[in-house]
Structure formats: C-alpha cells, structure tokens
Design a protein that fits this description.
heterodimer, A: MetI-like fold, flat, B: mainly alpha, MetI-like fold, 2 domains
Chain lengths: ~300, ~290
Amino acid sequence: MTPAGKTRRRNRTGKLWRRVKRYRFIYLMTLPVLAYFLVFSYYPMALGIYNSFREVKLLGAASFAGLNNYRTIFSSPVYIQAFVNTVAVGSGKFLLQFIWGLLLAVLLNEVHRKAVRSAFQTVSYVPYLLSWSVVGSIWITLLSPSGLVNGLAQLFQGDSYRKIVFMSERSHARAIMIFTGAWKDSGYTAALFLAAIISINPVLYEAASIDGATRLQQIRHILIPSIRPTVKVVVVLGMMGLLRNFDQIFVMANSSILDKVRNLLYLIYNEGIVQFRIGPASAAACVVLLATMAISFTVRHLIRYDQLS
Amino acid sequence: MARKSSGLWRRNELTAPQKAVMWLFLLFVGITTFLPMWNVIVVSTTTALESTRSGIVLWWRQFSLEGFQYVFSVCKLGRPFFNSFLVTTVGTVIQVFLSSIAGYVLVQRDLPFRGAITSFILLTMMIPGDLTMISIYQLNRDLKLLNTYQGLILNGLISGFSILLMRNYFESISYTLSESARIDGASEMRIFARIYMPVSLPGLATVFFMEYVGKWNGITIPAAILTNENMYTLPLKLKAMILTTSSVSGTAQIPDNAIMAAIVISAAPLLIIYVFAQKFLLAGLNLGATKE
C-alpha cells in the first residue's frame, strides 16, 4: 500500500472516530433500548430456536435431539388437531369479520345523518378496545343458561324451549369462537374500510350518476375498486393473525370443548410452560413462526403481483 | 331542498327497498353489538338476586351497587386492579420516554451506523412476542422476574412500532433547526427537550394511549410469568373468576352481578380513554394497520 493510501485510510477512520465521538451522547441514549431488545426480543427468539433442537429435561442436563422434537409434533394427534382447530376457527373468524366489517362500512357510508353514523361507529369500535378477558367473560355470561342468549331464545320459542349450556356444547364451540372473534374485531375492520371510503373523490360518483348509474352500481364499480388497497391491508393483517390467537382461547376454552377449539398457541403455552415439555413446544412455536412468515410473504407477493397487472 | 328535488341527486341514493334492507342490517349489527354491552351494565348494577333471574335483563328492577362491593370485598379485586394500574402506568410512561429517545436517535442524519441501529430496532417487529412465550418464561425465571412487578413492566416494555411512530413524527421537524441549535452550542438533551418534544406532543399522546390500552389488555405476558395470585393483573383475575362460574357447571359460585361488575371495572379505564383521547388512540390504532 502506498503511503498516500495509508494516510487516506487513517484519515477516514479518524474522521469516522471523530463523528462517533461527536455523537457519543446519542449512543449512550440508545444503549438501554438496544440492550432491551437484545435481552427481551432477540435472545428469546434465539433460545426458542435452540431449544427446538434439544431435549430439555426437568432434572439433569439437556441434550441435543436433532429433529426429534419436530418429528414428535408432526406425528402427534394433539398437535395436528390443534392445527386443524387453529385454521378452522381462524379462517372462519377472518371471513366473517371481513364481510361484517365491509358491509358495515359500505352501509354506514350511505347514512347521511352524521350523528347516527358516528354513534354506530363508536359502538362497533368499543369491543375492539376491550381485552379478550373482558369480551370472553361477557360472552361466557351471556351464553350461560341464565344469560341473555337463552333468554332471547326462550322469548321466541316459548316455554317449550330447553335451555342450552352453550359453552359446554361441543357442536357449538367453534361457531361461538368464530362469532365472538368477529364480534370483537369487525368494528375495527369497518373503521379501516370507512376511512378508505370517505377519501374517495365524490366527483367520481357524480360523473357516474350523470351517466345514469344507480347507487348500487356506483358502489359496485366505484367504491369497491377504490378501496382495494385497504382490502389488501386487511387481508394481510388477517392472515398474519390467523395462526396467533392465544388470548381468546386462553379465556374462553374449557375442558368440555377443549378438543374442538384448542389452537396451536394455547397448546404451546400449555405444553411448554404448564407441562414443561419445552422441546416439542419450542419446535411447534418455530413452525408457527415460519408459517406466519411464509403466509405473510406469500400474501404480500400475491398482492404486489396483483398491483402490477 | 333543491338538491333533493333534482332527479340527478336522487339517483345518488339507494332505492327505498335497498334502504330498508340496509337499515335492517344496521339495526341487526347495532343490536348485536350494543345489547351485550348494555346487558353487562344493567346486570352489574343490580342485586345478586335480580341477576340470577334468568333471561333478558335490559332494565333495572332494582338498582344496586352490591356487585361492585362484592368483587372488592369477596373476590378481592382491589389488588389485581392496583397491579394492573401500576404496571400499565409505569410501563407506559417509561415506554413513551424510551421510544421518543430512540426515535430521536434514528433521525440523526450523520450518525455513524444509523442504518444498522434502525434495522436492529425495526427487525424486532418481525418477532412475535406470543411465539417466544416459552423462552420468555425461561428468561424471566433465570432473571428472577417471575411473579414480580419488574417482570410485568419489563416484558414488552418497548416496541419497534412505537419507536417507528416517534421517528416519523420527528422526521417532520426541520433538521436544520436542530443543526443550527447544535452549532450554537446546545446540548443534545436540550435540543431533544426544547425542540423535538414540544412539537411532538400529539405523537407522544398517541404512543401513550395506544400502549396504555395494549398493556392494560395484555394477557400473554402475565399468563406466562405469573403463578402467584397476589400478583395477578385484572385480565388474569377476570379469567380466574369466570372459570369458577356458571359457564360450564351450571351452578354459579360468584353471582352474575359481581362478574359483570368486574367486567365493567376492567373496561372502564379504556372507555374513559376512548371518550377523552379518541383522536390520539384511533390515530395510533389505525397506523398499526398501515405499518404492514
């Protein structure tokens, strides 16, 4: 290396050092945040992956297990059933929430009195703010033998009605999870859609109505195409959340309906933390993580492809 | 008026039968959303005897606050409420402070390694906390954080999203302003506190209320690190209460009015925030969708 090159390099590192020194206070400010993420975000992630390849025993040292944990979960009927439950409840909830939210937004847009519209919006948004322990408790109580739902059914069917203990009825279990899930989140979906609908340029409707389009045709051919970006956002959000529904099942599941609604995250929690079978549970968590990433990647890819065409 | 009578404008309305269907649907949605919540409010403020009267309770026959008394005296809801309030408030305040600092760091244009720091922070948004639950449990066990307030506050203390939100707020502030202040000899702390903070109050409020709701509702972390009932937060306590009631067995141990009172108490802080800070809260929640 020529002497000139050496000096240039020394100058450059010297300059970098000077810049780093100038910002030393800023670095000091960042340190706690970076340390936090390292300990509470990256480390657990790495530990989870590491544990999924190990056999962790209650007593004695853990040993390397290769792919054994993965083999265990893929051949375990309990895990497979949890997967089926996750997809059944998750996709059902997403579909209902999507349709309910879209209809609510489109129809609220037709309500011209502002007070009525915002009353509807406010009320439908509240369940989204509440935690699953609140929403779950509300519905468990409403669906109990002395609850509102049985009361209404009795009102319509008369005295011959036999009360149903909804929460221990295996045939109703998934439907209840789907309905309450959509009940909680559709107001939020509607709010997202409504925000997109309101920002549509009214000139478009006027032009269409001059051309003789009815309101329904305007909704079909102007409104729906205009909110496509939001539809995509809602789909991506829904797909990413589909496999990760811990809170609802944690609060609402009980022993009589468990095999119908127990989903992957709830099973992972039970196996890993309560039963202390860390290896298989970590492996399952890794699979869910990979699946979530794959789904969101695929959906995003499809959407991008869709945008190009 | 003139607009309504012209044929052109009438075509911009749904036809009468369509409107009828529309109102039917809205009525249905309105009732299914509102009725359950109204039922909760009425039952929570009635007597235990009244609340066991099965069926449709949508108005008071006897107004009473004994449900609220019951949850505090018999179910000991005071402690969980205090726990939730403490960890949520302390956690949120620290989070707002640290998020704004990190956001401030990320807008320093000439900062060496800024790109690396940004990626390091934003990549954490890809790690879902609920999927690392088991490791979180192990970590907290090793750090002796199980069943402690520190554990409840520390886990999930900062989020990549709130930092991103603050960064976006700070980016709207002219960089030359802080640069000239720096040349005039102002310290970083001073620039941060005197130039960035005041302009970003709406951003701070957004992060505050959004995270407050999120932490108040959080159940994954408490479920993972708490076994001691004295440390239970409200969501866990509510879950434990509901488990011992009529849902499965058909015989109620805790009267319905007390359960409903506990629900009202758990939801009240959020409703207060929703009413008084709606603007900030919704801004944050709706931004959450666009981050994807």
